[in-house]
Amino acid sequence: MKDQIAKEILDRYLAGKSSIEEQALVETWYLDLGDKQEVNAPIDYDFRYQQLLATLPGPKKTQVIPLWSRLIAAAIALIVIGAGLFYYQAQDPKRGLHAMANYANDIAPGKVGATLTLANGKKIRLSDAANGQIAKQAGISVIKTADGQITYKIEESSSNNNQVNTLSTAVGETYSLILPDQSKVWLNAASSLTYAAGLQQQGQRRVKLVGEAYFQVAKDALHPFVVESGSQQVEVLGTEFNVNSYQDEEVFRTTLLQGSVKLSDNGATRILSPGDQATNAKGQLHLATVDTELAVAWKNNKFIFERLHIEEIMRMISRWYNVEVIYQGEVPDVTFWGSVSRFENVSKALISLEATGNVHFKIEGRKIYVFM
């Protein structure tokens, strides 16, 4: 029976039809297997399965389970774990009540919203602005579309197209815009993008980023697209990439999905190929091949934690849910994993982390207390 349920969940997962909870189950256990597996060691799925079955009440099954693929084994294990957790909570109802009390004051997720600051200092709250033209400057119209983004349209040439605009998101906000060259930018929470209304400056398409953004750059071989983040510059002709340059993070991360980019900082230069991620720690550049889905999960409205320290995870949660994080006790050097939709209340993200048994949370107002 468990085999059939697991197979059904996996079939839905592979077909892209699984629920958020089912997706989180498969991905979380998959990451758990990878985190605990010794490098180059064979995976004994039969032993893992029998070992997990032994934790359940009632008679143990002894039939041999065929060796399936890694994901199928993960799905089976998750069903067993889920049953075990249900049994555990049933035996200790006070634990469930305690968790409910901790999350009674739940916090809703962030939303689409941003502030556009024009060259004359005028600020426009985009969530309050009506659809249609919201500003016009030096022959350039700024339009809010029906699907909730802004786009720039150059209607007439002007020598004053370099008027500077800034699009900024507060904590708990995200927004997207289309620049005059038809490049599209998704802005994460607590971030800002500064650019000339006409975009081009001295033969380059240049923007300044603080925070995190995903760029889908329109091709233009004659006008490179440059993203400045502090002393770091990312230069492209036409490509898709993500830049994480939050000031409270130890490193900046630039992740390339398509095309090619050149990253430079204080004379050091690296060329990225698709699948590469460059980390920049105060001018020290390093390249590594990564799973790009993890780097852009936020753009796809997901949190995916893969072997991250709790402090880094909580900074992500703090930005999106607009909360203050307070640690109780010493923060250990352990990593966590999990997956949850960014459309969910904060309790869903916290519960997935608590399932590891290494951390607990309590919500009071807009404060989250972390107990290690």
Textual characterization of the structure:
- The chain has 372 residues and is α+β, with helices and mostly antiparallel strands.
- The protein has three domains: 90 residues, no CATH class; 156 residues, Jelly Rolls (Sandwich), CATH 2.60.120.1440; 70 residues, Phage tail protein beta-alpha-beta fold (3-Layer(bab) Sandwich), CATH 3.55.50.30.
- It contains eight helices and 24 strands.
- The strands form three sheets. The chain has a 19-stranded mixed sheet that branches.
- A hairpin with a 2-residue loop joins strand 23 and strand 24.
- Helix 2 crosses helix 4 and helix 3 packs parallel to helix 4.
- The longest helix is centred in the N-terminal third of the chain and has 22 residues.
- The chain is globular.
- Pfam families: FecR, FecR_C.
- It comes from Pedobacter metabolipauper.
- Keywords: Membrane, Transmembrane, Transmembrane helix.
- GO terms for molecular function: sigma factor antagonist activity.
- InterPro entries: FecR, FecR_C, Ferrdict_sens_TM.
